Amino acid sequence: MELRKKGYKYLKLSLWIMLLFISGLSIPITYAASQQNKMIYGVTVDDISTHFPELVSSLKALPYKPTVRMVFDPQMPPSYYTPAAKTLHKSTYIMGELLDSSSVKQYSVSVFK
Hints:
It is built from 4 helices and 3 strands. By secondary structure, it is an alpha/beta fold.
């Protein structure tokens, strides 16, 4: 009897997975699975005020879609980074970094609240 219940649970789970694939919701799952064990190529950008066009061109020329770790300066408003982030997002993945690790000791948690 217990074995029958387990078999039913697996069948039910399999049917749900098939339904997800058929309904088109499998795209994120498939993408995540395809990205497992792959290298992440990218750069850290901590200054968007100089050489930005050259940076964008270089990133576009890479053979893989790179990830940009964009380090935000606490003294600058988020709107300062919006144009650069929108430009970079067209050809890269973006990861925002609230503060560079070399500067962490200079700030308290209350600064970010």
